[in-house]
Amino acid sequence: CDVARLSNMICTIEDWAVSTSLSGVSRGKFEESKRLLEKTRFVCSVGNIDSEVPNNRMQAILASLRLGEEIMRAYDTPFEDFMEKSDGCLHDFMLSVSMLLHQFVLGMPKNQRFFHQRLNKLSEWHGK
To answer: Which of 30, 45, 102, 106 holds its CA 20 to 30 A away from the CA of 61?
Structure first.
């Protein structure tokens, strides 16, 4: 399931998106994460394309698979500690996460309520 793989990517972001003295940023995993985020975003739209027409059925299914919680986990990553060592990957990753978040809540009041309750955390990151 893509949500499970996306969850794994978010949980291990510090391992593959940060350059250390032992290894550099894993471009392969970075590209995989962007593809997963884009694919999941498209699933939230009618026709599985990048559109502003929401697919509420798929949004509900993804919510039942805890996509909202996984998106929030990305916002819990201490990016200030890693941003300089990520060669721009973390910024691009979070831009893709934000685009998915937009499509996941579009026209879906239940998903909107979930994130509305977490606006402080979202505002912290977007204020940077």
So the answer is: 30
